[in-house]
């Protein structure tokens, strides 16, 4: 027969562990966002070109795929996540310089918009405590379709396809924010470094897609 | 085609190669959502789309 005291204690331990992962994730996410912003500012000051941006992005992805999974369970994961987010911030510099030259309100609106969407979706997932694990397949298929479309558009050069891709990214990243937050709440994600990397990527992709959409509809792209 | 486009294409091909097995695993193993579960995604998504339209008018 189950002892109610033991089961209550386990449940409390589980809630405490979840809250700790959530708190650490948001703390690390805030720090990495600030660091990434500083690196983006440095990149903009140096007037970094698209070539350097591509190299920084590839280096960040190499860290994400091959280094972070091996270090995320130790303190070595902390410098790796900062290197990963810093490189992505650096890679953002040419895009930011472009949109700031065209219309600075695009950057500030996209930044504010990304923040509001993130807070809204996180709040929704945290308060409703819905389980979004059923979305994993849909999100991965959607991501693959967007990447194939982006690859095709390198050759096709169709502005409409690019715009549709950005719209799809905003919707997919919204799903990823809900999925990752619900995964932390329900104990699917127990590593705050990996959770931070996932949420950071969602925010960055959403910010870039929003800048693109606002640039097009602002008549500047 | 310049080397920047070639580099971007190589990066995207790398992403496809990396994501494809994970996608197959997720599709095969993720729990299936019912209508109620999907509404939990569609409702906030509609709010996000509405908010983006508002942002477009603000720029």
Characterize the structure shown.
The complex is a heterodimer of chains A (221) and B (59). Chain A is mainly alpha-helical. Chain A has one domain. Chain A is built from seven helices and no strands. Chain A has helices at residues 4-45, 50-71, 77-102, 104-128, 136-156, 159-185, 192-217. Chain B is mainly alpha-helical and 59 residues long. Chain B has one domain (3-58). Chain B has helices at residues 3-29, 35-58. The longest helix of chain B has 27 residues, at 3-29. The radius of gyration of chain B is 18 Å and the shape is flat. Chain B starts with a helix and ends with a helix. The model of chain B has no long low-confidence stretch (mean pLDDT 93). Classes of the chains: A mainly alpha (221), B mainly alpha (59). Chain A binds chain B through residues 50-51, 54, 57-58, 61, 65, 103, 105-106, 109-110, 113, 116-117, 120-121, 124, 128, 130-137, 139-141, 143-144, 147-148, 150-151, 154, 170-171, 174-175, 178, 210, 213-214, 217-218, and chain B through 3-5, 7-9, 11-16, 18-20, 22-23, 26-33, 37, 40-41, 44-45, 47-49, 51-52, 55-56, 58-59.
Summarize the structure.
Chain A has 221 residues and is mainly alpha-helical. In chain A, 86% of the residues lie in helices and 0% in strands. Chain A has one domain.
What's the structural blueprint in terms of helices and strands?
The complex is a heterodimer of chains A (221) and B (59).
Chain A: H1 4-45, H2 50-71, H3 77-102, H4 104-128, H5 136-156, H6 159-185, H7 192-217
Helix pairs in contact in A: 1-3, 1-7, 2-3, 3-4, 3-7, 4-6, 4-7, 5-6, 6-7
Chain B: H1 3-29, H2 35-58
Features:
heterodimer, A: 221 residues, mainly alpha, 7 helices, B: mainly alpha
Low-confidence stretches of chain A: none
Outline type of chain B: flat
Order of helices and strands of chain A: HHHHHHH
Name the helicity range of chain A. Answer: over 70%
Shape of chain A: globular
* Number of E-state strands of chain B: 0
- As a percent range, the share of strand residues of chain B is under 5%
Contiguous uncertain segments of 5+ residues of chain B = none
